[in-house]
Amino acid sequence: MIFYQWKNFQSDTDVYTQAIFEKEVGDEFEAMMYEANSTIPKWIWTKHFVIQLKSNARMYQDISFVKIPRNPQDIVLKV
After folding, report:
1. 7 near 31, Cβ under 8 Å?
2. DSSP bridge partners of 2
3. DSSP 37
Protein backbone atom coordinates (compact mmCIF):
# COMPACT_ATOMS: atom_id res chain seq x y z
CA MET A 1 0.00 0.00 0.00
CA ILE A 2 1.33 3.44 -0.90
CA PHE A 3 1.04 6.37 1.51
CA TYR A 4 1.61 9.99 0.59
CA GLN A 5 1.74 11.08 4.22
CA TRP A 6 4.58 10.01 6.50
CA LYS A 7 4.01 7.12 8.92
CA ASN A 8 6.61 6.73 11.68
CA PHE A 9 8.36 3.35 11.85
CA GLN A 10 11.08 1.83 13.98
CA SER A 11 13.79 -0.78 14.18
CA ASP A 12 15.07 -2.24 17.43
CA THR A 13 17.59 0.60 17.69
CA ASP A 14 15.94 3.68 16.08
CA VAL A 15 12.61 5.42 15.60
CA TYR A 16 12.23 7.14 12.23
CA THR A 17 10.16 10.30 12.01
CA GLN A 18 9.92 12.30 8.80
CA ALA A 19 12.38 14.90 10.09
CA ILE A 20 14.95 12.29 11.15
CA PHE A 21 14.63 10.39 7.86
CA GLU A 22 14.96 13.52 5.70
CA LYS A 23 18.04 14.62 7.64
CA GLU A 24 19.64 11.18 7.29
CA VAL A 25 19.08 10.84 3.52
CA GLY A 26 19.41 14.55 2.71
CA ASP A 27 16.24 14.75 0.64
CA GLU A 28 12.51 15.56 0.94
CA PHE A 29 9.92 12.78 1.47
CA GLU A 30 7.20 12.22 -1.18
CA ALA A 31 5.68 8.73 -0.64
CA MET A 32 6.24 5.35 1.02
CA MET A 33 5.14 1.79 0.23
CA TYR A 34 4.42 -0.96 2.75
CA GLU A 35 4.03 -4.62 1.89
CA ALA A 36 1.17 -6.56 3.54
CA ASN A 37 1.66 -7.19 7.28
CA SER A 38 4.92 -5.22 7.39
CA THR A 39 5.76 -2.61 10.03
CA ILE A 40 8.64 -1.15 8.00
CA PRO A 41 8.18 0.35 4.51
CA LYS A 42 9.79 -1.46 1.59
CA TRP A 43 10.29 1.67 -0.57
CA ILE A 44 10.36 5.41 0.10
CA TRP A 45 10.27 8.02 -2.67
CA THR A 46 11.98 11.35 -2.14
CA LYS A 47 12.38 14.30 -4.49
CA HIS A 48 15.60 12.92 -6.03
CA PHE A 49 15.79 9.26 -4.96
CA VAL A 50 13.89 6.01 -4.62
CA ILE A 51 15.11 4.43 -1.40
CA GLN A 52 14.92 0.71 -0.72
CA LEU A 53 14.82 -0.23 2.95
CA LYS A 54 16.58 -3.44 3.82
CA SER A 55 16.22 -5.20 7.13
CA ASN A 56 19.48 -6.36 8.69
CA ALA A 57 18.79 -8.95 11.35
CA ARG A 58 21.61 -10.40 13.41
CA MET A 59 21.26 -9.89 17.13
CA TYR A 60 18.62 -7.19 16.65
CA GLN A 61 16.59 -5.72 13.79
CA ASP A 62 18.31 -2.82 12.04
CA ILE A 63 17.53 -1.02 8.77
CA SER A 64 19.78 0.13 5.95
CA PHE A 65 18.88 2.56 3.17
CA VAL A 66 19.82 1.95 -0.49
CA LYS A 67 19.52 5.24 -2.41
CA ILE A 68 18.72 4.91 -6.12
CA PRO A 69 18.68 8.15 -8.18
CA ARG A 70 15.31 8.83 -9.82
CA ASN A 71 16.91 10.45 -12.88
CA PRO A 72 20.08 9.30 -14.65
CA GLN A 73 21.19 12.95 -14.92
CA ASP A 74 21.44 13.02 -11.10
CA ILE A 75 24.23 10.42 -11.11
CA VAL A 76 27.62 12.06 -10.68
CA LEU A 77 30.52 9.79 -11.62
CA LYS A 78 33.64 10.19 -9.53
CA VAL A 79 36.84 9.52 -11.40
Report:
1. no
2. 33
3. T
